[in-house]
C-alpha cells in the first residue's frame, strides 16, 4: 500500500469503518418530537388500550394489569398483552440494559421514582417519543411522530383510526408486525388493538368494524441513498446477531457491530445484478413473454474465512424484502453435480479418466423406473471420461456414476460441505434437492480452500458500548477439528478444481472467457426452473441465482442468465482489489500431472492429435498409452447447459427429467 501523495510505501495504516446502518440506535434514529397535545385522541387511546389501560390510575406498577395480561395471554395462547406499565417500559428503554431479575427489580423501583418526579402527561409523551417502531432505510424509527411520517407519509395529526391502531400494534414487535414484511400479521395486530379499544370504551364496536374493513394504504418504503442493495445484508446481520447474541440483548444494549461486507464489492454486485436484469427484461419483452418480477440473488464469500463480502437478495428492497440469498430454497440443477464427482473420487475406485457409457439408460430405485435424458436428447453413444462428462454436464453419465459411487456417499459429502442433506433418490445427482444461494456458496468454498468446511459469517467483531468487552467472531479450526470436519482431502478438492477450470475454459461456462474474464477461475453452471452460476478463484467464491419468485420456468440456461452477472462482478472486483486475481490455485502435495488423450483417457502418445494436461492423485494416473486406433473421435462440447430434474412430484416419487 502506498501514499497517493508521496508515492512512498506505507508500513501501517488505519482504515476507519464506514457506517452502513443503525439498528435500534436512539442516537442514530430518525425522530419527530411531539407534545402531549399533538397526540390524536385515537392514537393515545390505542396505545393505552394495548399497552397500559390503567396508566392514569396506577403509580408505576399495575398488579391488576399484570394479572389481566396473564389471563388474556393464556386465553389467546400467545402474548397479546404485556405486564409492564408504560412507565416501566420507558425506564427499561431509556435507563436499563440486560434482561435479568435484578434489572426487573430496578425497573420497578425506578418506575415508582419516575411517577413521583413527573406528571402522567409528561411520562406518556416521553414514551411516545422514545419507543422503537422499526426501520426506515439505514435508520431506526423512534417515536410515533416519525412512525406516522414513515409508514403513512403524513403528520401525526392526520392519522385515521385504523392507522393509529396499526402504529400502536407495532410497539410490541416492530419487525414481527411490520406492514411491509408481514402484512397479514400487521392487520391482525391492528384488529387486536381495535378490539382492545372497544373493551376499554374508547370507541364503539361499529367504529372498530369500519376501521377493520379498511385496507392498508402505506407510504412507499424509503430507499437507501446509495442504492447498493445493502438492506438485504443488514437483515441477514440482524438475524445472525439474534442467534448468537439474542434479540432481547440486541434491543436493550448498545453494540457496535463490525461487519464483513466490502462496500465497494457490494456496490459492484448490486450494479451487476441490476444491469443484467434490465437486459433480461428487454429480452423477455421482445419475445412477448408475459411480464413478471424477474429476480436475482448473489453471494460472495471469502473461501477461507466464510466472511460475506457481498450479498444481493433481490432487485429492489423497496419492492420486496424477501432475501433470496438466504431464504429462497431452489433446485440447484447441474450446480450440484460436482458433489457427485467429488464423492466418487473420494470413494477411491474412480479417477477423472474413468469412463462410463453416454447413451440412453433406465435406472431403477425402490422398484421405480427413472429415465433421465441429456440436454436435447443428445448422446455421445460412446464411453466418455468423467472429466468430459462434468465439463459437458452430461446427465446420463452423472446418474450412472452416482449409482455406482453410492447415493449415501453423495448425501454425506453434500451435507458436510454445508448443503441440506438430499434425499437418497437417483435424481439428486442432477440437482433435484434444494438449497439457498448462501448455502451453495458455502459448499463450493470447500473446493477452493482445499476441502475445509466454511460457515458463512457476516460479523467480524461485536463490541459492547460502555465496556471493554468484545467478541471476535473467529473462524479458525484446531487441527483436531480440521481432521474431523474436513469435507474431502486437499487432493480431491484440487481434482475438482482442475475439472471445473475446464468447465470455464472449454465447457458449458466457456462464455466466461468470451465475456472478457481471463483470470484463473473454476465453476459450474446450473439450470432448473431457474438459472445458476457458481464460480470461484483462489480467494473468492461467488454464487448467482436468477429466477421468478413464483417458481415459473425461466426458459434460460445458467450460462445465459446468471453467468454474465458473475463475470461483471469479478471484473470489477479485480479492478477494486487486484490481489483477487493475481494467483492461480495452489497445487497440494500428492498431485501428479499427465498429458492425456481426452477421448480414451490414456496417456498421450505420438498418435494423439489432441492432448490435455490433467491432474491426478499421485499413483492413480493412467499407465497405458493411446494407440493409433484410438484418436479419431472429436469431443464436441455442448453449447448449452443440460436441463435438470423437475421438482419432486406430489406422489413423493423420484422427480422426472425434462427431455427438452
The CATH class name of the largest domain reads Alpha Beta
Question: Order of strands side by side in the largest beta sheet?
Answer: 6-5-17-16-15
Can you tell me the CATH topology of the largest domain? Beta-lactamase
What gyration radius follows from the Cα positions, in whole Å?
A: 30 Å
Number of distinct beta strands: 19
Helix content: 25-40%
What best-fitting shape do the alpha-carbon axes yield? Answer: elongated
Main β-sheet: number of strands, strand sense, barrel status? 5 strands, antiparallel
Strand content: 5-15%
The number of distinct helices, counting runs of at least 4 residues, comes to 23
| Helix-strand category | alpha+beta
Number of domains: 2
**How far is the N terminus from the C terminus?**
53 Å
What is the annotated CATH architecture of the largest domain? 3-Layer(aba) Sandwich
Mean pLDDT, all residues = 84
- The H-level CATH homologous superfamily of the largest domain, spelled out, is DD-peptidase/beta-lactamase superfamily
Task: Give the low-pLDDT segments.
Answer: 97-101, 630-660
Fill in the keyword field for this structure.
single chain; 660 residues; 23 helices; 19 strands; 14% strand; alpha+beta; Penicillin binding protein transpeptidase fold; 39% helix; 3-stranded mixed β-sheet; Beta-lactamase
Amino acid at each position: 500500500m502506498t501514499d497517493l501523495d508521496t508515492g512512498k510505501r506505507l508500513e501501517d495504516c488505519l482504515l476507519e469503518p464506514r457506517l452502513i446502518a443503525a439498528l435500534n440506535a436512539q442516537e442514530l434514529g430518525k425522530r419527530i418530537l411531539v407534545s402531549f397535545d399533538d397526540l390524536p385522541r385515537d392514537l393515545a387511546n390505542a396505545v393505552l388500550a394495548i399497552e397500559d389501560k390503567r396508566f392514569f390510575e396506577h403509580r408505576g406498577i399495575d398488579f391488576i394489569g399484570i394479572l389481566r395480561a396473564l389471563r388474556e395471554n393464556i386465553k389467546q395462547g400467545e402474548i397479546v398483552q404485556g405486564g409492564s406499565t408504560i412507565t416501566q417500559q420507558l425506564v427499561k428503554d431509556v435507563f436499563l440494559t440486560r434482561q435479568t431479575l435484578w434489572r426487573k427489580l430496578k425497573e420497578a423501583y425506578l418506575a415508582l421514582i419516575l411517577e413521583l418526579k413527573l406528571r402522567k402527561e409528561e411520562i406518556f409523551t416521553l414514551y411516545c417519543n422514545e419507543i422503537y417502531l422499526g426501520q426506515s432505510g439505514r435508520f431506526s424509527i423512534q417515536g410515533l411522530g416519525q412512525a406516522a411520517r414513515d409508514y403513512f407519509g403524513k403528520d401525526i395529526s392526520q392519522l385515521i383510526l385504523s392507522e393509529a391502531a396499526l402504529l400502536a400494534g407495532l410497539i410490541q414487535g416492530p419487525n414481527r408486525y411490520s406492514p411491509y414484511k408481514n402484512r397479514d400479521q400487521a392487520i391482525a395486530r391492528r384488529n387486536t388493538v381495535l378490539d382492545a379499544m372497544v373493551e376499554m370504551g374508547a370507541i364503539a364496536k361499529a367504529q372498530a368494524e369500519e376501521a377493520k374493513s379498511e385496507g392498508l394504504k402505506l407510504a412507499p418504503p424509503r430507499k437507501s441513498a446509495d442504492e447498493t442493495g445493502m438492506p438485504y445484508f443488514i437483515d441477514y446481520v440482524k438475524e445472525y446477531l439474534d442467534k448468537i447474541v439474542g434479540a432481547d440483548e440486541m434491543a436493550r444494549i448498545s453494540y457496535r457491530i463490525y461487519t464483513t461486507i466490502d462496500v465497494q464489492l457490494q456496490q459492484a454486485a448490486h450494479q451487476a445484478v441490476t444491469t443484467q436484469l434490465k437486459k433480461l427484461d428487454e429480452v423477455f419483452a421482445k419475445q412477448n413473454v408475459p411480464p413478471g418480477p424477474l429476480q436475482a440473488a448473489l453471494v460472495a464469500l471469502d473461501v477461507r474465512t466464510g466472511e460475506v463480502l457481498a450479498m444481493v437478495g433481490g432487485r429492489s428492497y423497496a419492492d420486496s424484502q424477501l432475501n433470496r440469498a438466504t431464504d429462497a430454497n431452489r433446485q440447484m440443477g447441474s450446480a450440484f453435480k460436482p458433489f457427485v464427482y467429488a464423492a466418487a473420487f473420494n470413494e477411491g475406485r474412480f479417477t477423472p479418466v474413468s469412463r462410463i457409457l453416454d447413451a440412453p439408460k433406465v435406472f431403477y430405485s425402490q422398484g421405480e423406473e427413472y429415465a433421465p435424458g441429456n440436454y436435447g436428447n443428445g448422446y455421445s453413444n460412446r464411453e466418455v471420461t468423467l472429466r468430459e462428462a462434468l465439463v459437458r454436464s452430461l446427465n446420463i453419465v452423472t446418474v450412472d456414476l452416482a449409482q455406482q459411487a453410492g447415493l449415501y456417499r453423495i448425501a454425506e459429502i453434500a451435507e458436510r460441505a454445508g448443503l441440506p442433506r438430499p434425499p437418497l433418490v437417483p435424481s439428486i445427482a442432477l440437482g433435484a434437492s434444494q438449497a439457498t444461494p448462501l448455502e451453495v456458496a458455502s459448499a463450493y468454498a470447500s473446493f477452493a480452500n482445499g476441502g475445509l468446511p466454511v460457515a458463512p459469517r457476516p460479523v467480524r467483531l461485536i463490541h459492547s458500548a460502555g465496556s471493554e468487552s468484545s467478541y471476535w467472531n473467529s473462524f479458525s479450526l484446531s487441527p483436531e477439528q480440521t481432521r474431523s470436519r474436513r469435507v474431502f482431502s486437499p487432493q480431491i478438492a484440487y481434482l475438482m478444481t482442475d475439472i471445473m477450470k475446464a468447465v470455464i475454459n472449454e465447457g458449458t461456462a466457456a462464455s466466461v472467457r468470451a465475456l472478457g474474464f481471463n483470470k484463473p477461475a473454476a465453476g459450474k453452471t446450473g439450470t432448473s426452473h431457474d438459472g445458476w452460476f457458481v464460480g470461484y478463484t483462489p480467494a473468492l467464491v461467488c454464487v448467482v441465482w436468477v429466477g421468478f419468485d413464483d417458481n415459473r420456468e425461466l426458459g434460460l440456461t445458467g450460462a445465459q442468465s446468471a453467468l454474465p452477472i458473475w463475470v461483471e462482478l469479478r471484473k470489477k472486483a479485480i479492478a477494486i482489489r487486484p490481489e483477487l486475481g493475481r494467483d492461480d490455485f495452489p497445487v497440494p502435495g500428492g498431485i501428479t500431472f499427465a498429458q492425456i488423450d481426452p477421448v480414451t483417457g490414456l496417456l498421450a502418445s505420438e498418435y494423439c492429435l489432441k492432448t490435455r494436461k490433467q491432474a491426478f492423485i499421485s499413483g492413480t494416473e493412467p499407465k497405458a498409452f493411446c494407440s493409433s486406433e484410438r484418436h479419431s473421435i472429436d469431443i464436441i462440447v455442448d453449447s448449452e447447459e443440460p436441463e435438470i430434474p423437475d421438482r419432486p412430484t406430489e406422489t413423493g416419487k423420484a422427480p422426472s427429467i425434462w427431455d427438452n
